[in-house]
Amino acid sequence: QVQLLESGGGLVQAGGSLRLSCAASGRTFSSYAMGWFRQAPGKERESVARIRWNSGPTYYADSVKGRFAISRDNTKNTVYLQMNSLKPEDTAVYYCNANLGPANYWGQGTQVTVSS
Question: In the 8-state DSSP scheme, what is residue 29?
């Protein structure tokens, strides 16, 4: 069982930056692939970025490539999402995800609002 708690969301102007954090409970955090998803009003939840358990190859949605960076610190059971050059279309609730085989865990989400 893994519990996830996101933080770092807020209101920022276009062009600004935010760093999201996701703190995980559980001793097996380092075994999980971690990801960030987002859901805007009226839209489906979409994958934003993912990182493997060993900080290996990462994945980014085309819409955030070059602007967002995912990283993890297994000593702190935490995964981060650095978001730069934010755009109004990045406005959404951002969710942290932990995945290991068939097991999937989600945080409660943190709101990111980008004003134009």
Answer: G
Structure tokens at 18: 């935010």
pLDDT digits (tens, 9 = 90+) for 49-85: 999 988 778 999 999 999 999 999 999 999 999 999 9
Which H helix or E strand runs over 92?
A: strand 92-100
On whether the CB atoms of residues 9 and 20 are closer than 8 A, the answer is: yes
Write the pLDDT tens digit of every residue in 7-50: 999 999 999 999 999 999 977 888 899 999 999 999 999 999 99
Tell me how far CA of residue 105 lies from CA of 32, 40, 45, 46, 114, in angstroms: 10, 20, 14, 15, 27
Chain center to CA of 93: 10
